[in-house]
Write the structure tokens for this entry.
Amino acid sequence: MEKNKECPICGCNEIGEGLFSGYATMKPTNKFFTLGSNVVADVCTKCGHILSLRVTDPEKFKWFEFFLKNKKCILQVFFKRLYIIDTIINIQ
Ligand SMILES: [Zn+2]
């Protein structure tokens, strides 16, 4: 953890930590994944400037490792979607 952070706007060095959570999670841009990660923000306690944002689970954005860890689940979702697409094509 970085210490002695200073707000570039007002110079205050009392930096608090905030959390975007629940529905405000960050998700990988690939829509294939539905799981998100919470986002932590460093916030200046004087002027409210957000110094930085970071996700709590950065490994979720590493596509290949995430795939290996969740292979079974991802493949199930993938084939389910293929089935849905196939059904839609057959209807038309
Ligand atoms: Zn500030």
Remarks:
- The mean pLDDT is 80.
- Residues 71-91 form the longest helix (21 residues).
